[in-house]
Amino acid sequence: MPRIVVDVMPKPEILDPQGKAIVGALPRLGFTEFSGVRQGKRFELTVDGEITEAVMAKAREAAETLLSNPVIEDVVNVELVND
Amino acid sequence: MPRIVVDVMPKPEILDPQGKAIVGALPRLGFTEFSGVRQGKRFELTVDGEITEAVMAKAREAAETLLSNPVIEDVVNVELVND
């Protein structure tokens, strides 16, 4: 089903305690390959009807105003996914 | 910087209270285009050195065992991103 995927990540300069906790846990579980982890959010928005450019523009607006906190987070991706 | 992106979403049959809250908030903020929202997680893993197929295999293993809870979540994507 077509849907809009919005990806939000903590800004690089913002401390990410969840990511830090995962980095600490990885080697204890045998994963020594990874030097850093950041945890963000992924949203999937569904739409009844066609996803037009106007709908994508509204999704970008919602991403910046409701789905992310622009003080501490960046919207890194807003894309249409068909599968 | 090259990094590995892991996307995790709640399984379709699992209630997603955060997504439900967002669906309720959207029309109050003037966004009437969206019929559903699911909220998941996005992880960005960094690696010192080259990201080989062996490292990607470890990332997929970490995604299934540490980054997601397989009872309630699906790993929907593990990919190498260069930018």
From TrEMBL, chains A, B:
Reactions catalysed, as given in the entry: N(2)-formyl-N(1)-(5-phospho-beta-D-ribosyl)glycinamide + L-glutamine + ATP + H2O = 2-formamido-N(1)-(5-O-phospho-beta-D-ribosyl)acetamidine + L-glutamate + ADP + phosphate + H(+)
Gene Ontology biological process: 'de novo' IMP biosynthetic process
Enzyme Commission code: 6.3.5.3
GO molecular function, one term: ATP binding
Cellular location(s): Cytoplasm
Pathway annotation from the record: Purine metabolism; IMP biosynthesis via de novo pathway; 5-amino-1-(5-phospho-D-ribosyl)imidazole from N(2)-formyl-N(1)-(5-phospho-D-ribosyl)glycinamide: step 1/2
Cellular component annotations (GO), alphabetically ordered: cytoplasm
Keywords, in A-Z order: ATP-binding, Cytoplasm, Ligase, Nucleotide-binding, Purine biosynthesis
Subunit record text: Part of the FGAM synthase complex composed of 1 PurL, 1 PurQ and 2 PurS subunits.
Function: Part of the phosphoribosylformylglycinamidine synthase complex involved in the purines biosynthetic pathway. Catalyzes the ATP-dependent conversion of formylglycinamide ribonucleotide (FGAR) and glutamine to yield formylglycinamidine ribonucleotide (FGAM) and glutamate. The FGAM synthase complex is composed of three subunits. PurQ produces an ammonia molecule by converting glutamine to glutamate. PurL transfers the ammonia molecule to FGAR to form FGAM in an ATP-dependent manner.
Family of the protein in this entry: Belongs to the PurS family.
Full protein name: Phosphoribosylformylglycinamidine synthase subunit PurS
Organism per entry: Psychromicrobium silvestre
Designated gene of the protein: purS
